[in-house]
Amino acid sequence: MIKHFETLAELAACVGQEVAVTDWFTVEQAHIDQFAQATGDHQWIHVDPERAKAGPFGDPIAHGYLTLSMLAGHLGGVVQVREVRMGVNYGLNKVRFMAPVPVGSRLRARVTLLDAQPLEGGMQLAWRSTIEREGADKPVCVAEPLARYYV
């Protein structure tokens, strides 16, 4: 469900709070194969299901960077600010891949606003996105993306 804010100031008041939780998303082999094709990373643990069955994870796993790349869609899909005309990714402060993502995993992100700093024409926001795998006891990825929003 999308969390709507009228202004950046209204969103900035949420620093320190979990702002949103995404819907579950199932990672299919087709996603992994498309990511491999786009990036040129064809390591067998990702794209060779037969070989991966005998590997350390028992099945193919998603690329860590595939999991990370989902953050752009997660954030834009759950937080919207009406006064903002444009938002851009600015980078990451920290990223950790803490557990594998086997094919068929259902993932969701918990999004917390860590910081909000004014900048000319808008605001820079620092987030923490904790990507959970359904049924797992620890997150698969924790990242701190930075985004700049312009009014």
Describe the secondary-structure layout.
Blueprint (H helix, E strand, L loop, with lengths): L2 E3 L2 H5 L5 E4 L3 E2 L2 H11 L4 H4 L1 H5 L10 H15 E3 L4 E12 L8 E14 L2 E12 L7 E10 L1
Parallel strand pairs: 1-4
Antiparallel strand pairs: 2-6, 3-6, 5-8, 6-7, 7-8
Word description of this protein:
The protein has 151 residues and is of the alpha+beta class. Helix content is 26%, strand content 40%. The protein is built from five helices and eight strands; from the N terminus they run βαββααααβββββ. The chain has helices spanning 8-12, 29-39, 44-47, 49-53, 64-78; strands at residues 3-5, 18-21, 25-26, 79-81, 86-97, 106-119, 122-133, 141-150. The strands form two sheets. Strands 2, 3, 5, 6, 7 and 8 form a six-stranded antiparallel beta sheet that branches. A two-stranded parallel ribbon has the order 1-4. Strand 7 (122-133) and strand 8 (141-150) form a beta hairpin. It is elongated, with a radius of gyration of 17 Å.
Short description:
This protein has helices at about 10, 30-40, 45, 50-55, 65-80; strands at about 5, 20, 25, 80, 85-95, 105-120, 120-135, 140-150.
